[in-house]
Write a structure and sequence with these properties.
Elements: E1 4-7, E2 10-13, H1 21-31, H2 40-48, E3 51-57, E4 60-69, E5 74-82, H3 91-101, E6 110-112, H4 119-123
Parallel strand pairs: 5-6
Antiparallel strand pairs: 1-2, 2-3, 3-4, 4-5
The chain binds coenzyme A (COA).
The site of coenzyme A has 15 residues, from strand 5, helix 3 and helix 4.
């Protein structure tokens, strides 16, 4: 069963079959500040093992976000983007809203994410700065 929401002429859907991997890979690898150089194979595997949220305009992929989750306790929101020509129309907000209202994630105890500058966008959907960053640790892989 797939989850979708419409936003004007746009559709947001979690159906992996709809995602144009070339658009997602192309934007992440060439334009993002966090996934430069990510391979197409990695993008394919990451989508297969996440809940992908695609933004579609007449079937064409124009935005994306990905939820890495166990669908019970935890979800990591990442790889969020809207193609430049489609920005400013509320799609970024619609994507974050779709992420936190996804029917499979209503029991999740923690949604987390990392952002360089979009704190205000996520803050509108309940995300806060970590109050105890000393309780969190990170182990970087060789590619991060
Ligand atoms: C961030 C992004 C997805 C927003 O998409 P969008 O469709 O233009 O967003 P919306 O039209 O829903 O508007 C976002 C709102 O959040 C605000 N905002 C706060 N920080 C922002 C930021 N860093 N970038 C964009 N908007 C931001 C905007 O001002 C806007 O406020 P408004 O509703 O009062 O006008 C888009 O700008 C993008 O793809 N940026 C490059 C990739 C990126 O930075 N992704 C997020 C990584 S954490």
């Amino acid at each position: 069963v797939t989850f979708s929401k419409s936003h004007g002429e746009y559709l947001i859907s979690d159906d992996p079959a709809l995602v144009d991997v070339d658009v997602v890979h192309g934007w992440l690898t060439d334009a993002s500040y966090w996934a430069r150089g990510r391979t197409r194979e990695t993008v394919v595997r990451s989508i297969a093992n996440s809940i992908p949220l695609g933004v579609y305009h007449r079937g064409v992929t124009v935005g994306f976000a990905r939820l890495v989750t166990d669908r019970s306790t935890f979800a990591w929101l990442c790889d969020v983007f809207v193609l430049e020509e489609h920005r400013g129309a509320g799609l970024g907000k619609a994507l974050v809203d779709a992420a936190v209202t996804h029917p499979d994630l209503q029991e999740v105890e923690r949604f987390v994410l990392a952002t360089a500058d979009a704190h205000d966008l996520y803050g509108r959907y309940g995300f806060e700065i970590l109050d105890r960053p000393d309780r969190w640790m990170i182990r970087r892989g060789s590619t991060a």
